[in-house]
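User: Reviewer 2 asked us to show a designed sequence for the structure in our supplementary figure. I'm pasting the structure tokens here. Could you produce the per-position amino acids so we can include them in the response letter?
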């Protein structure tokens, strides 16, 4: 059974194991594929307002973070990033984390959530986010350099909470 809770320092090893493999592939996140552990820890756990883990059978199955997307007049909109262990995708972990993040963001006082760069070739994510009520607010032509497909479009996706 999937349990989602706030991440603690001891969860970093499990998060890093998943995150580093996803980043090395270079096909979904606009993070340098050779980013070091400290840089990834800063991006995933230190800078965001909150970081959560999805636990399955006592192991980190996935993680997500929430942070303010913009300052000032845009501070009511949050941003989130999600990772799921590659060996257990397709089991509802991403959907569960997204649902949890929407509730948590609302509890934190946010009024909307925005994904700034959803790579168009990541069709599983695009489909999931749409099914969770997100709309494509804009297309950024050739905004992402995919390691296999070259320049591909990226989407800005948005949802009111």
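Assistant: Here is a per-position design you can include in the supplement:
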């Amino acid at each position: 059974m999937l349990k989602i809770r706030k991440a603690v320092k001891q969860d970093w090893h499990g998060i890093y194991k998943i995150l580093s493999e996803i980043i090395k592939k270079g096909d979904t996140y606009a993070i340098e594929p050779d980013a070091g552990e400290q840089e990834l820890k800063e991006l995933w756990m230190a800078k965001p307002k909150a970081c959560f883990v999805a636990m399955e059978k006592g192991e980190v199955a996935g993680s997500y973070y929430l942070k303010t997307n913009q300052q000032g007049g845009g501070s009511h909109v949050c941003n989130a990033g999600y990772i799921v262990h590659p060996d257990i995708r397709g089991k509802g972990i991403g959907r569960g984390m997204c649902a949890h993040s929407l509730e948590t963001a609302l509890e934190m006082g946010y009024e909307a959530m925005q994904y700034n760069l959803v790579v168009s070739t990541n069709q599983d994510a695009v489909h999931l986010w749409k099914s969770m009520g997100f709309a494509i607010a804009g297309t950024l032509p050739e905004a992402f350099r995919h390691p296999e497909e070259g320049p591909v479009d990226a989407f800005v996706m948005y949802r009111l909470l």
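For the response letter, you might also mention the following. The longest strand covers residues 135-146. The chain has one domain: 3-160.
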